[in-house]
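Give me structure tokens for this 111-residue protein.
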Amino acid sequence: MDERFLKIADQLLLIERELRIQGWWDDVPPSQEALSSVEPFSVDTLDFEQWLQWIFLPRMKMILEQGLPLPNASGIQEMAEMVFASRNVQGKDRQLQALLKEFDLLITASR
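Here you go.
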């Protein structure tokens, strides 16, 4: 097992917690059509926070649970920067961006 798995699992829990704290966690999933987008980050059908909740977190949890290889790279924090720069969230996004940056660093850390 990759030694980063436990740290990444903890980071995923922190990301989920932050989404909930900020009120960006949905109880009702988007439509199957919205979840089936082939665009990066599902930008055509989901808000970034929805993508984190309904696509990113479940995929990463599945990878960890099944012991599959981790991605070689991650640019989620960069995407978050672009998304939040276009919104007026008044700093609510800072903690989430910090958590996503730490996730990106864990993914690219040497094994």
